[in-house]
Specification:
This protein has one domain (6-67): Orthogonal Bundle (434 Repressor (Amino-terminal Domain)). The protein is built from five helices and no strands. The protein has helices at residues 6-20, 24-31, 35-42, 50-60, 64-67. Helix 2 crosses helix 3 (35-42). The protein is globular, with a radius of gyration of 12 Å.
């Protein structure tokens, strides 16, 4: 499996936050990280840990595959 590039993740995170109209400081507080850390993720300078990535996907209602560039599909399919 290819490694996820932080720049891809950063672009996808910015896009999802923009579409969902999520503000930086509120998002950072909700995931328990500093706004500065979220800025580094969005800028493509670093990646979150796996458990944080799962939380990010949950909050933004996107798939981890979308955030990591493995798919273009942003929406999470609802079962049931």
């Amino acid at each position: 499996m290819d490694a996820v590039k932080p720049c891809v993740f950063g672009f996808r995170l910015r896009r999802a936050m923009s579409i969902r109209r999520v503000k930086l400081h509120e998002f950072a507080a909700e995931i328990g990280r500093s706004p500065e850390t979220v800025k580094k993720w969005r800028g493509g300078y670093m990646m979150p840990k796996a458990e944080t990535l799962e939380r990010i996907a949950e909050i933004l209602n996107v798939s981890i595959d979308f955030l990591t560039g493995r798919t273009q599909e942003m929406e999470v399919e609802k079962n049931g």
